[in-house]
Structures are given as structure tokens and as C-alpha cells.
Design goal:
The protein has about 200 residues and is of the alpha+beta class. The protein has one domain. It contains 3 helices and 13 strands; from the N terminus they run αβββββββαββββββα. Strands 2, 3, 4, 7, 8, 9 and 13 form a 7-stranded mixed beta sheet that branches. Strands 1, 5, 6 and 12 form a 4-stranded mixed beta sheet that branches. A hairpin with a 5-residue loop joins strand 10 and strand 11.
């Protein structure tokens, strides 16, 4: 029985190698992330984190994407709108087989108030003050496919249909600011309405 278990485990090794594709999770000088700070800006640009989300090929709803466990950051080695996640030779993506195509997007947020861990509720609810979502790209994951062919790692940022532009990580107004603006608008409308009926 033990020998059968060992044999099954050994047989799973090649299948596991084919199950994970390779991508380059970093941007370049023509696909920078633009940080738009609040007024007044903080004294130092905070640490930002980035997460890779994927969906079946052709998905256009940004909310239909799921996190694949891959992070990047704007470390000291990647400043001025650049970020790096893993090796330039490529990093594996669980659930994205080599040679298969998927749609993908990148989300970015400030670590100061969001921390280093992705939270999927940020796409639909309360999110960190500084937050942004890239356009949607698509491509084939690199690696060794089921036929044994070697495919170079997919550059998440690069020529289309990868992400050929950067994106913005912007400061969202606080809830109190939004409430005050709404209250001012209602007051202004009510005041003008009274003038018209007098």
C-alpha cells in the first residue's frame, strides 16, 4: 500500500509542473503606475502593493476576476511608478496552466491603510484610501505545456493584448467629505427651490 502511495505521488510531479504557468509580474517605463496623492500630499510616498487577478478569457467585468496569490510592490529597487513581483525570469501562477490563455487585471493599493494582503471586498465595498485597478489584458502563460513545448513567460505589462498602459492609484475621498459635499448640494438645491416658489 505504501509503495502505491509513493508511486501516485511521483506520478503527480509532472502534472503539477504543467499546472502552473509563468508570468513576469512587473511593469516597465512605458506602463508606469501613477500615484495621485491627496491634498496636502503625505511627506513620503507610501509602500504600495499590487495583486494579479485572472478570469476566463474574454471576461470584461472587472468584478469577475479572482486573486491568484501573486503580489508585487514598489520596493526601493522599483521606484518612480515601477513595481516588481518575483523574478524577471518569471513566477509561477497556480491554476493558470502553461500555454493557456486567460484575461487578467492588476490592482494596487497603499500599504499604509490597506496592509500587505489583498482583500477581495475592496472591489465592491470599503477600500484603502489609495486604490486603483488596471485595464484588462489577456495572454498565454509561459512554461512547459502538456506537449513539452517551452513557452517564454508572459509579460503582464507589455505589448497588447497584455497591459500596454499603466494605471492610476488615486486617493479616494473620505466618507465624511462625500457626505459634506452631498449635504451642500441638497442645501443649495433646497435654497434655490425656495427662491423660485416665492
Amino acid at each position: 500500500m505504501k509503495q502505491l502511495c509513493v508511486l501516485l505521488c511521483v506520478l503527480q510531479i509532472p502534472l503539477g509542473a504543467f499546472a502552473q504557468g509563468l508570468v513576469k509580474f512587473s511593469n516597465n517605463s512605458s506602463t508606469l503606475v501613477t500615484y495621485i496623492p491627496a491634498v496636502p500630499p503625505p511627506p513620503n510616498i507610501p509602500t504600495f502593493y499590487f495583486a494579479l487577478l485572472t478570469a476566463p478569457l474574454g471576461t470584461v467585468d472587472p468584478l469577475a476576476f479572482t486573486f491568484v496569490g501573486l503580489y508585487a510592490t514598489n520596493s526601493a529597487a522599483a521606484t518612480g511608478g515601477r513595481f516588481q513581483g518575483g523574478s524577471n525570469l518569471g513566477v509561477t501562477v497556480a491554476g493558470w496552466a502553461a500555454g493557456t490563455s486567460r484575461s487578467f487585471e492588476v490592482v494596487g493599493w497603499s500599504g499604509t491603510d490597506g496592509g500587505p494582503v489583498w482583500n477581495p471586498t475592496w472591489l465592491t465595498g470599503t477600500r484603502p484610501v489609495y486604490f486603483g485597478v488596471s485595464p484588462i489584458g489577456q495572454g498565454f502563460a509561459g512554461g512547459t505545456d502538456t506537449n513539452g513545448a517551452s513557452i517564454p513567460p508572459l509579460a503582464i505589462f507589455g505589448a497588447a493584448p497584455s497591459l500596454s498602459t499603466g494605471f492610476y492609484v488615486t486617493a479616494l475621498p473620505e466618507h465624511g467629505t462625500v457626505s459634506l459635499v452631498g449635504l451642500a448640494a441638497v442645501s443649495f438645491w433646497f435654497r434655490n427651490r425656495q427662491r423660485l416658489t416665492v
